[in-house]
């Protein structure tokens, strides 16, 4: 039963639609839980199997937050069946001694919580799976009942799968592939407009590009549809979305050609982008691989690059170039921007083909950007786990926090012989949050709700006594009411209703007394206290501060890449770093950690009383920080692809100087995001629009110069958003 609190702790507005959603889910959970419980309790007289059948349904249907429609949740649980059986077996045998159960809780608790690195579905299922281990890990030690426990668990899960798939089915939202296909078609439309007079996008077209790019941001995508897993297809689909957003951004920012006319080479590239984008959208549906238009764009791009970097070919009709040995700077600058559009389109098509066909993709994936395309699934999981196996990962922090809290609760329950200590662990599991402020706020509401529920429970038990028929009749009604109202009204209501619910269940398993309500209050109080202690000791500020550090580290790594890339382009092959070198791996790791911190940051309410402590926490455009990291990676890898010819001293000094200045601005912003104790303070602008845009091109600068400047210009756009906060809609498709 969830919490309906909105951002910043302000209760979310409750609407009939909210009750309709929770009501449909309550119907399914009630039917599957009650059917299994009554079958074994009254039909077969197997109370152990009845308990496990009910709690299996409640664990995966009520406690777990598996995203998606009913059929998607059913498919997830079907794949998790072996894990569920293993947890029941391990919990049963480790309950022989308290220390065994405690050690098992530490290992299992961490493993299940850390599995959240695998995406929203493992993260959502983790609390329910924790419960499936907690239940058998308590006394009595009865390995002889393992068969009955497994039968009950399997029955409850089977009923869950059937009910979720067939009862009150929900429509599936548009998949991420469908969203990506729509955005790619929007990019094709924009490229078609830029390939024909007047070679510019209108205001509505720019807004459409912004909306299409925004639709691919994970925050606007339902959790079940986010390609967040470590597998090849998920990685490639996420890569597709990011490349499509970059393409839309560059199309929207392409300057009007000088003189109002566009050269045939640039037109050919944009037309090839249109064909490739159209083929990519078809590929994301049911169409063939976009290999043929991909090769067409590669050839058109190579021709434009060769023409832009050399003398004017005979018959070129661009104004201001006839008879001149070189194109004017404005033309070369725009050609460099068109080349960036082509690179984004090629990356998008490659990623889409890998996302659809996996290792059988027809488009040849570059090993630098698509290192995962030929990697085995176990190795991809290993890469994901290793990347988050450190104290700076919010996944690692959350796993440590909940594992230690559950272990302490199991130790206290075993050593202190708490009555129904299982409830203390359940309270720890459901009430511990990622920030101390949120944990304390949640626990206060939960204790109030539990106390109210205990009073109702005491009254019901006193009136009904040992009349089991009363509890059997009331249970499904109360369960339906509780699972409908609790998720909408918030954690206080949820805990109060659940207190009465567990009393109705246990009253049918053993003779009840009013002291059952007293035990429930005591256990919730103990579990809450443990949650508060570990919420205070283990990273009490959640992702709010971690995001600042991760973003600052990302910018510091990006600054190193910018300086090294500028020096490499200036000097040519002499100091060219190989694509995908150690510096790129460090930046990639920094991007991964920043993305996970950002995802958790968006799910956490503003800390109570924390606004003064972090006044700019939500005014910073964190999404622009992530885009700056990706743009740094892609641009550096593209510019360092051989052959590198080197630049003459004047042009080389200009490129190196621009790179140094952009890198310096990155370092200033990183220091502002995560200042240290000895960080210098002073009055200076975080963003200077004159850094790149108004620079005077050196005479005779080649195409490599303009390609580098175009890349640095895109990075300055990202830095502008970071320093100024989110732009207004219409300023680009990557606006947050």
Spans of at least 5 consecutive residues whose pLDDT stays below 50 are 1-12, 310-325, 574-582, 605-618, 726-736
Oligomer: single chain
Number of distinct beta strands: 0
* Helix/strand/pairing category: mainly alpha
Amino- and carboxy-terminal Cα gap: 31 Å
Shape: elongated
Taken as a percent bin, the fraction of beta residues is under 5%
Largest sheet: none
Give the overall average pLDDT.
79
**H and E string:** HHHHHHHHHHHHHHHHHHHHHHHH
Rounded to the nearest angstrom, the radius of gyration is 30 Å
Q: Number of helical runs?
A: 24
Give the % helix: 55-70%
Written account of the structure:
It contains 24 helices and no strands. By secondary structure, it is mainly alpha-helical. The N terminus and C terminus are likely disordered.
């Amino acid at each position: 039963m969830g919490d309906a609190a909105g951002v910043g702790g302000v209760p979310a507005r409750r609407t009939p639609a909210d009750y309709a959603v929770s009501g449909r889910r309550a119907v399914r959970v009630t039917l599957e839980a009650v059917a299994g419980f009554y079958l074994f309790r009254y039909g077969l007289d197997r109370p152990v199997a009845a308990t496990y059948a009910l709690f299996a349904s409640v664990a995966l249907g009520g406690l777990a937050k598996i995203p998606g429609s009913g059929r998607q949740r059913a498919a997830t649980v079907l794949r998790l069946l072996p894990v569920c059986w293993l947890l029941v077996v391990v919990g049963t045998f480790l309950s022989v001694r308290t220390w065994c159960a405690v050690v098992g809780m530490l290992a299992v608790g961490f493993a299940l919580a850390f599995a959240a690195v695998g995406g929203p579905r493992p993260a959502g299922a983790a609390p329910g799976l924790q419960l499936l281990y907690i239940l058998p890990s308590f006394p009595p030690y009865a390995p002889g009942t393992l068969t009955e426990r497994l039968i009950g668990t399997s029955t409850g899960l089977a009923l869950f799968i059937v009910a979720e798939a067939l009862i009150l089915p929900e429509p599936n939202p548009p998949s991420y592939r469908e969203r990506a296909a729509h955005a790619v078609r929007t990019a094709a439309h924009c490229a078609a407009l830029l390939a024909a007079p007047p070679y510019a996008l209108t205001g509505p077209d720019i807004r459409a590009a912004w909306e299409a790019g925004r639709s691919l941001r994970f925050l606007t995508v339902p959790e079940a549809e986010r390609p967040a897993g470590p597998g090849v297809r998920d990685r490639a689909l996420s890569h597709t979305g990011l490349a499509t957003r970059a393409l839309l951004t560059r199309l929207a920012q392409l300057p009007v050609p000088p003189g109002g006319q566009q050269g045939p080479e640039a037109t050919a590239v944009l037309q090839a982008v249109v064909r490739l984008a159209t083929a990519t959208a078809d590929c994301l549906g049911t169409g063939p691989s976009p290999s043929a238009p991909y090769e067409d764009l590669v050839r058109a791009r190579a021709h434009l690059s060769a023409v832009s970097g050399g003398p004017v070919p005979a018959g070129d009709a661009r104004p201001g170039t006839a008879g001149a040995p070189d194109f004017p700077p404005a033309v070369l600058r725009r050609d460099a921007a068109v080349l960036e559009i082509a690179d984004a389109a090629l990356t998008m098509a490659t990623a889409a083909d890998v996302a659809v066909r996996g290792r059988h993709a027809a488009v040849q994936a570059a090993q630098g950007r698509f290192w995962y395309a030929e990697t085995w699934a176990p190795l991809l999981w290993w890469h994901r786990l290793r990347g988050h196996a450190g104290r700076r990962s919010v996944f690692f922090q959350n796993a440590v926090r909940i594992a230690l809290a559950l272990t302490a609760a199991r130790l206290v329950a075993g050593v202190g012989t708490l009555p129904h200590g299982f409830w203390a662990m359940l309270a720890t599991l459901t009430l511990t949050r990622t920030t101390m402020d949120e944990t304390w706020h949640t626990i206060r509401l939960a204790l109030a709700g539990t106390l109210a529920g205990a009073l109702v429970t005491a009254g019901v038990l006193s009136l009904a006594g040992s009349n089991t028929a009363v509890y059997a009749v009331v249970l499904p009604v109360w369960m339906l009411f509780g699972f409908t109202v609790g998720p909408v009204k918030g954690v206080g209501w949820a805990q109060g209703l659940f207190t009465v619910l567990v009393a109705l269940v246990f009253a049918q398993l053993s003779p009840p007394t009013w002291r059952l309500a007293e035990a429930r209050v005591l256990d919730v109080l103990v579990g809450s206290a443990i949650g508060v202690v570990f919420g205070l000791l283990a990273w009490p500020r959640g992702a709010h501060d971690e995001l600042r550090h991760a973003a600052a580290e990302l910018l510091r790594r990006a600054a190193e890449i910018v300086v090294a890339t500028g020096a490499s382009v200036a000097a040519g092959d002499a100091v060219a770093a190989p694509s995908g070198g150690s510096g790129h791996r460090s930046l990639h790791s920094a991007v991964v950690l920043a993305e996970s911190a950002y995802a958790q940051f968006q799910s956490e309410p503003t800390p109570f009383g924390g606004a003064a402590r972090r006044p700019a926490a939500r005014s910073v455009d964190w999404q622009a920080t992530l885009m700056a990291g990706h743009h740094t990676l892609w641009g550096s890898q593209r510019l360092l692809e051989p052959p590198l010819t080197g630049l003459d001293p004047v042009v080389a000094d200009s490129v190196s100087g621009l790179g140094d200045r952009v890198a310096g601005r990155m370092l200033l912003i990183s220091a502002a995001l995560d200042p240290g104790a000895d960080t210098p303070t002073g009055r200076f602008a975080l963003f200077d629009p004159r850094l790149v845009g108004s620079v005077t091109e050196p005479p005779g600068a080649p195409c490599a110069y303009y390609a580098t400047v175009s890349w640095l210009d895109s990075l300055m756009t990202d830095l502008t958003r970071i320093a100024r906060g989110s732009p207004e809609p219409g300023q680009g498709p990557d606006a947050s």
